[in-house]
Amino acid sequence: LNYPTAQFLISAPTLHHCPSDSGTEVAFAGRSNAGKSSAINALTQQKALARTSRTPGRTQLINFFSVMNDDARRLVDLPGYGYAKVPEAVKIEWQQHLSEYLRARHSLRGLVLLMDVRHPLTEFDQMMLGFADEREMPVHILLTKADKLKKGPASASLQQVRSRLKEWDDLVSVQLFSALKRQGIDTLSQRLDTWLAS
Ligand code: GDP
Question: For residues 3 and 67, is the Cβ–Cβ distance under 8 A?
Fold first, then answer.
């Protein structure tokens, strides 16, 4: 699919406000500051489709984008998670919206989970993997900011994440990614294509 055709559709504060649950969509999730906005902007070749966060954790909305002028194929930008300065009550509310969306959304075909290559598989990341596992939904992990490590340490991190997730290897795939160097965009596009076509 031609991801640069992506266009903003709607922002939803809760599952209740999401567009009609038909067609296919893929969602992007990750700790705030993991590089999610930068990855969506790199994929779509748009500077500001997903806003890179000046204040991390501010985006509490679920943002929907259509692909190829077709509302039935969507990219979904989920709220970043884990920003320290957000009050506990608000964190719990976001967590509820995230789990509700991930568990209940029929049109959701796969989850792109972003993790800083230097700090992968946090407690939150594992919780997200758990939600996906509950419904046997595939997850594609982007180890982001790969340009921050030399080649050796970057592939060591990739291997380590793969081996830690070995028992899930029929549902989980992992790649290195750098929005800055535009590394890994083709691999990501191919994975999204298989999900959005089904
Ligand atoms: P989000 O909170 O997950 O949406 O993260 P952002 O996309 O806003 O990125 C958080 C910070 O990481 C920003 O300062 C970005 O410039 C930086 N960043 C994002 N992607 C990359 C990357 O591929 N390489 C490097 N070096 N920095 C990145």
Answer: yes
Q: Which residues are within 8 A (CB) of 92 and not within 5 positions of it... i.e. 6 or more apart? A: none
Q: What is the DSSP letter of 8?
A: E
Q: Which residues line ligand 1 (CB under 6 A)?
A: 30, 32-38, 52-53, 56, 80, 144-145, 147-148, 178-180
Pocket test for ligand 1, best of 28, 38, 60 (most atoms within 8 A of CB): 38
Please answer whether residues 168 and 113 qualify as being in contact, where contact means their C-beta atoms are separated by less than 8 angstroms: no
Q: Is the ipTM of this structure higher than 0.90?
A: yes
Beta bridge partners of 64: 10, 76
Structure-token match 């969507």, residue found: 74
Nearest to 9 by CA among 62, 48, 66: 66
Q: What's the CA-to-centroid distance between 145 and ligand 1, angstroms?
A: 7
For the question of whether the overall pTM of this predicted structure is more than 0.90, the answer is yes
**Domains contained in the chain, CATH given:** 3-197 (3.40.50.300)
Q: How confident is the model at residue 97 (pLDDT cuts 50, 70, 90)?
A: confident
